[in-house]
Design goal:
Ubiquitin-like (UB roll); 4 helices; globular; 5-stranded mixed β-sheet; 42% helix
Length: 146
């Protein structure tokens, strides 16, 4: 019987959490976020508004889809951009009911990111060192075999 009470309390807490998030998303600064927003997405949007983060548009190599607006902190490294791309795609797939598992190890072995003609190969290097600024576009390019 205690378990049912705990489940009800959890369901109520979840309902309150969703209601609170829905109120937050109605705020003019956060209105472009999806209905099923995550706390991480809210934090990213707030960081953008305060100038602590930037949006990097990541385009697929085939250019069939619109670029993905990925948010990273101003001093982000290439590795942090890759992780942000993974999170963005994972959330997008969950919301659209698409592929559940993507082998990112395979993706990063097969493709690399490029800004203009320069490949972003050093994961420790900062995006600023490559000249990447807010709203710049990075593309996936096929890696050549050695």
């Amino acid at each position: 019987m205690a378990e049912e009470g705990e489940e009800l309390a959890h369901a109520e807490a979840l309902e309150l959490w969703q209601a609170g998030l829905a109120r937050l998303v109605r705020d003019p600064l956060l209105c472009d976020l999806p209905a099923q927003v995550t706390p991480e997405e809210i934090a990213s949007q707030v960081a953008l508004e305060y100038g602590q983060a930037m949006t990097v548009r990541v385009r697929r190599a085939d250019a069939l889809q619109a670029p993905m607006p990925v948010v990273v902190v101003q001093q982000a490294s290439v590795l942090e951009l890759k992780k942000a791309v993974q999170r963005f795609v994972q959330l997008q797939q969950e919301r659209q009911g698409g592929v559940q598992h993507i082998s990112w190890r395979h993706v990063w072995r097969t493709y690399s990111l490029a800004f203009g003609t320069e490949k972003l190969e050093d994961d420790r290097r900062k995006l600023r060192e490559y000249g990447i600024r807010n709203r710049d576009e990075v593309t996936f390019v096929k890696r050549l075999r050695k």
